[in-house]
Sequence to fold (975 residues):
Amino acid sequence: MNNNLLVSIVLMTMMLMSSLSGCIFDNGSLLAENYSPDSGPCKGAQIGHNDDGKLRILTYDINAISDEMIEQFTNQSGFEVEIIRTDDAGGILEQMFQTKDAQQADLMIGLDNSYLQSAIDNCLLQYQSAEVENISAESLSQYDGDFAVPFDQGYVCINYDENYVDGENVTIPTSLWNLTEEQWTGKIAFPSPITSSPGRAFMVSTIDYFENDEDNTTDAFDWWRQMRQNEAIFTSGWTESYEVHYTGGYGEWTDGHIGDAAMTISYCHSPGVEAYYSSNWTHSKSLMLPKTSFHQIEYTGIINGAANVVGANQFIEYLLSAEINSQMPEANLMYSVLNDTALPETAGYRHHSEIPTQPCTITNERISQEMDQWLSKWIIEVEY
Amino acid sequence: MNHFNFEIKYYDYLQKIIAISAVIIFAVLSFAPLLFAIIRLQTVTGVSVFSAISTFFDRPSNLESLYFTLVEASVSALATVVIGLPIAWHLARSEWKHVRIVRALLAVPFVTPAIVAAMGFLALISEGGILWSIGIDLRLETGFIGMIAETFGWQHPGHFIALILAHAWFNLSLVIRFVEPPLSTFDPRWEEQLSLLPGGNSRINRLRNLWIPFIGPAILCSAVMTFLFSFTSFALVKWLTPFSTTMESSMANMGGAAGIVGYRVDASMVILSTSAVQFLILMLTLILLTMLQRRNNSRVSMISENVARNNHGKLNLIGKITIFSGLIFTLAPMISIFIASFRIRDSIGNGQFTERYSFDAWVAAWQGDLSYVSASEALSNSLIYAVVTLLVSLPLGWILSSTIHSLEKSNRMKLAKFVDVLSMLPLAISAVMVGLGILLGILRYNSSLFSFFLIPVLPHIMLTTPFVVRIMTPAMRAIDPAFEQQAKLLNLSPLRCWWHGRLSFLRGPAIVAASLTLAFSLGEFGASWILVRTGSWDTLSILVDQLMSRPKFDPMVQPVAMATASMLMILTFILFVIAERFRPKGDGGGI
Fold:
């Protein structure tokens, strides 16, 4: 093989790339104009795909949307349903950004309140006119507008292993600073806020926690730096933290479990779910520290550029119907958003699920405005 | 006669058009998405790809992943040679009946989907797994492995060893495929004669003067290829080393957020800089590989494999133990997956569980009880993608090989080498980079393609065509031109000349290439993973990962994932058996 030939191919490729990069910067303004957020009120986007009578739903791997449920909706409404799936809530937002010029789905299901405002600010959603009722005030506390309707909720919070926190050698933490002490060295697994929705929700709540504590000289990022110094484990997603590292959950029964963390981030009702699947038995517990939990509400909304708005509204009504929404705790392992619904008593589900009284109170608007900045700061404290 | 001349001229003309079109189509398919992706990323980040390379070194996590990737790939290459060489040696240098079956079994891992390998090793090393049962705890790192960690202050040696073993398992057949054929057809008289000379009268002298020059380049070739595949490892790293990331896996984690103007610029920056650095490293590796392959092509005296084997005699005890250990090593992860797919845990209260064995998980997987898509739907998607990939890759690869061969025959060596290198270049672009290229370079420019069912075929074509070329080109070179000339002398039409002079000799290699294309497409993970997280193109290998990534409060989820992995494994295995039936005896060419 002629090496010079190879080297010249590499160089040619590079040169081609760089010469094209010149074109990019010339045309950059055109692209940027298409992709920058509208400064004024949102306009209706062009319909992104043909209306062939199908309802296209953009969602992530939500247990709630089962085959039977879709089938029932199709029988009732006559609309065929096609699911377009991303890997998590962040993926839904990113997909809507990517296809902004020609949206491929009609309805999104799964953006939570840490992402919703970004979608609204960037005109990715349109008004919905579904007739839904009986939604609890608590579920509407974070957003009560017309762009989205809540369909399930839960609280993201710290979970710990009661076998480790025995009250003698290790006591229940009373402050987040306790977690920087030696007994927690290498014992906490955090899903990264960069790549995980629960990780992101918890990072937001730490900002609220340290903004409201008595010490004005430190902030959340000082704490995150100390957590890194205390050898906290950072993982890309919830599954890796909870299943691979956490000793208090079902992970100990799965292949690949390491079990080196006695604390992680999950939902406050995760111990309830553990008990539900293990005949009312769990040694996992949620930590009820003020401001350390995040009230996560997941929404559904009609995408700006949807072709099948009628079908999308009907699906929202269907998802919020008592028959479907009251099944959320079993079907989707989340709370329903309807009034007078609660977790089932079965196998200790409700008994082991605590509801925090003082969750984080940072608004969606602030999250939307400051998230990029927080994430950059977090990267500096944890990675550098 | 005039009509016939016209036909030949027309045929030559047509052949040239087809050859040029194939080269252009391949180049556009392979590189256009990547160029568009780079343009998009440069727009978002506001920096050129060259500046991005320098920013790569500013972020500590990038450096960590670069360091880890280089170390794991190098150690994997070394370990694969250390494990594979004795097996290849004993496999080649003895007389025995079942050599083809054993050779085929040892080669299965190479076509096993990466996600299946990951699940297999996870089941093998976890508590209750085969390795754990014999006291080697690579996952929880207790006992002997824990001692290593403490003594050397080495963090997570168990996970690292597990990854290296998995890479060695995966690439074992590369060493065997490269080293065994020359050894098994080597004329033993050379060795006998050399042992009478001063330069070969001792083992060390024979090693220095015979074996190192003879099989050294082949060993190095297989080591470099192992380095290449381990460098871009994703599924195995994702599941086996939870504390470390390769450059490939860090790109995969950030990929979804990249390429959107005004949103998560950090993600675009990581993708742009990491892909540029990774491309450069892989390019250098490929250059090294092509240099080594040229050296490896040197001819030595070869005789019939059977004659050579008869001369060596029966397999001795050490040989038997080596081959047997190799087979156990090959089969253990697969057996572990099978067992795990039948094992179901039931709660009996108070934290106590019982285990039972049943087909429940297989039924649930087939019906899709725990996932959006059932294994049967994902299987049909996988098969459709694999067949469409085959329909494009095989003719495209064939024409590219034929073009290289024709150029070589007409002594236009530089142009032949250019097409040869061009066809290999996609190997320098990892699966995740290919997936990101399509996502950022095509889908974000034309959103309507998000609903195009056949989009995943594109990365599969890009990733499998180089393998078709690697298999077909040596096969074409090996055809004796006398056959084609004789066919021409018989005044046969160009088509019949081609049929009798070439196709009949290329049927075997073409079937091998076809089966491998199907197997690679079925098991492709990296590119599909990137695309599937932004669409609804579910394949069997993606379904395994999706199931494994689900919360497993419900104890059925894991067995269902393992059952899905088993289905994929069986399908790949069937394809491989077909390929092996058609592989010519003593053929170590291609891959």
User: Anything to note?
Assistant: The longest strand of chain A covers residues 149-161. The radius of gyration of chain A is 23 Å.
